[in-house]
Write a structure and sequence with these properties.
It contains 2 helices and 8 strands; from the N terminus they run βββαββββαβ. The chain is mainly beta. An 8-stranded mixed sheet has the order 2-6-3-5-4-7-1-8. The longest helix has 7 residues, at about 30-35.
Amino acid sequence: MMIEVLKSKIHCARVTDANLNYRGSITIDEALMDAAGLIAGEKVYIADNHNGERFETYIIKGERGSGTICLNGAAARKVQPGDIIIIMSYALMDFEEAKGFTPSVIFPDANNQL
């Protein structure tokens, strides 16, 4: 049996920008992506701690070390710069494998730095 489990999480990142006039996605600082084990194009779920919004989109790689967390396109309507969000990705795993799996969870600082 396969189950879906948390694979990666960026906990409490600060939204730096919301760009409505762009194709949909979330731009994430490449350093944060690497630390959390995320890749460009990967589907992620976003939870906004300020307004309760929850939605999904995909990742675009941002400039390494920039601290960028930018929601693009329609997702830009769900957040405001300065909001604190949680970015999560999930993976399908065999039930037994999942029992021993530990997700990658990172906690960036107020400037989205490690």
